[in-house]
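Entry for the shared binder. Reason: the reviewer on the internal report wants the predicted structure included alongside the sequence.
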Amino acid sequence: MGSCFAKWSCDYAESQIDYTEGPNNWNKFAEELDSIDYYFEKKQNLPWCCSYVNACILHGCTTNTDPKWTAYYVMYQKTPNLSAVVSYMADYFKDNDAYFADTQDLERGDIVFFQNDDGLCHVGICVDWDDNGFYTCEGNKGDAVQKCFYRYGEVGGYVAGFGRPRYDAWDEETSEKEPDNQKEEPKPTPEPEPTPEPKVQLYRVRTNGSPLRLRSAPNTDSACLGLIPNGTVIAVSGMVQGEMINWNEDWARTTYDGMVGYCSANYLEEE
């Protein structure tokens, strides 16, 4: 199962292996669930396999919301008046089409229900599987939490079936509920790159001695903006094509005496 909540529930389940019950079945799982009024009755003198499984869900799926309601939601238990009875627990999954018996559908984090001649009698959580069978962690198994292995052929015998908690749905439900300090800080808007200065090339005016006309457009029909004396070095920001002068169509864009205009490149010599 892809949900991180399924993984965390199984991790907690395995971390409790070999934990032994307290007197009269009153142990830390029952005490924890009782402290948040998870069941409608005090869990004492009753088998604690349900308490263990629900504690695993509680530890694996708790976010910043009320932990009791978190576990209710994942286990399809929509009322605070619950019973720590295996058959009732199975009914929550059956009523929501989340109960199945086909081991091909089995995933890590699924709830495993067991039965005897009197009906459903025990519950655990699936923590792993291989080609031959699957592994569970179960509370109240020989008065302790134990990791057990069952072959796929036992399903329908002692193994009654499986319940699928809605771990993934809880992922979606809580995606907007995470505390603000868990959200990625917005990245600052980068400063705009400065506009690079236009690359200029220096040219010297070379005429027959007369000044070179600076025009408003790259042709001789445009207005004359000024006269650039012969021998003057000017900065050219670019060349454009315009009217042909002595078989040369290039006109230089330059600034002279505060005026931006064009002059024929036919009369310019690169410095």
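Summary line for the report: The mean pLDDT is 82.
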